[in-house]
Amino acid sequence: MNNIGFEKQLIEWRRYLHAHPECAFEEINTSEYIAKVLTDMGLEVHRNIGGTGIVANLTVGDGKSIIGIRADMDAIQLTENGKHPYTSQNPGQMHACGHDGHMTTVLGAAKLLTERKNFNGTVRFIFQPAEETGKGAIAMMQDGLFERFPVEEIYGMHNMPGMPAGSISTRAGGIMASEDNFVIRIKGQGSHASSPHMGKDPIVIASEIVLALQTIISRNMNPNVPAVISCTEFITDGIRNAIPTNVVIKGDTRSYTPEVQKLLEERMRTVSVGICQINGAECQFEYTHEFAPTVNWAECVDIAVRAARNVVGENNVDGNCQQWMASEDFAAFLQKVPGCFVFIGNGDDSDGIGNIPLHNSQYDYNDKILKIGAEYFAELIKVRLSK
């Protein structure tokens, strides 16, 4: 297939997937579509791993090494506000994080590798459900992913709005953060708004807590160590002229090491309980670990950077990029096997195409980078499994 035909095929795949988004563990049509495309390529396809997950295998030559390439499949619960002809046909669901493009990129790599066969070993194309919830990678592993389909290394990619289109960046060590969720329940004593002295105002108490939590970052954390505490929901059972009895604060934290996660949890609990106690209120503090930090293996970063430079040139590759405080459940795979996660630029202000943020109702994956991503993965396999 020539370049024009290949790019046309990539766009066709991507736009179909964009128009038919499905959320976590509901990727039934998506899985069927991906499996058919892979089967039509002549690949050995295994389905229903960890729910809707897929593994497709391609072996060339007699090499014993096995490398995994992963794409995420799920959409998010968001109503699309785009105007293109391939907008979501599923109300309230949208590929607003680019997983349609990630799937297409790996399909494209599979297409190139089945045609070129310029490596010696086995490639496993892994299509994972439920990345957005942080549960899909774990579900696949609990279903025996690496026992049934062992890999020596695994590689993944995420598009990045704001980065020049087609540029590639990565780093050794922590590249994406953990996500821990918290819920702080405060019980005071409600009263009439005209008589605050007769109650124990949980809004004031909760406000003290929200402000005090930020001092953990500024005064308990080493300034050279990145961490974030974000209070994102503030819920009361009051009305305009009544001070409430209950307030709930929800939010999440981001960091890169278990030590920082522990420090954040302990200090947040101490601050929340302490402020409630001095104000005569009750406090319940809940803290859960949702995503582990995504930590790249240095030796795999070297391979990824070499492959990226071969495809897009040295000036378009950053091998020591800034960390991103968002989370990614590819992290769970990297806790089990070596690997590397990279970012590919979706576009910036210079092109006006791919700079709309992720999880925005008008976001769209930049079709111009599909071939670049596919070539990157194909080159990575060629470099890693060279004959």
Quick structural overview:
Helix content is 35%, strand content 26%. It is built from 10 helices and 16 strands.
Largest sheet: number of strands, sense, barrel closure: 8 strands, mixed
Mean pLDDT: 96
Distance between the termini: 23 Å
Q: Tell me the series of helices and strands, N- to C-terminal.
A: HHEEEHEHHEEEEEHEEEHEEHEHEH
- In CATH terms, the superfamily of the largest domain is Zn peptidases
Q: How would you explain this protein's 3D organization?
A:
This is Amidohydrolase. It comes from Siminovitchia fordii. Residues 182-269 form the Peptidase M20 dimerisation domain. Pfam families: M20_dimer, Peptidase_M20. With 387 residues, this protein is α/β, with parallel strands linked by helices. The protein folds into two domains: 3-176 and 293-384, Aminopeptidase, CATH 3.40.630; 178-289, Alpha-Beta Plaits (2-Layer Sandwich), CATH 3.30.70.360. The chain is built from ten helices and 16 strands. It has helices at residues 3-19, 28-40, 99-116, 136-142, 145-148, 202-220, 258-278, 298-312, 330-334, 370-384; strands at 44-49, 53-60, 66-72, 121-128, 153-161, 168-169, 173-176, 178-187, 191-192, 228-236, 242-243, 246-255, 282-291, 294-296, 317-318, 339-347. An eight-stranded mixed beta sheet has the order 1-2-4-3-5-16-6-15, sandwiched between helices. Strands 10-12-8-13 form a four-stranded antiparallel beta sheet, covered by helices on one side. α1 (3-19) runs antiparallel to α3 (99-116) and α6 (202-220) packs antiparallel against α7 (258-278). The model has no long low-confidence stretch (mean pLDDT 96).
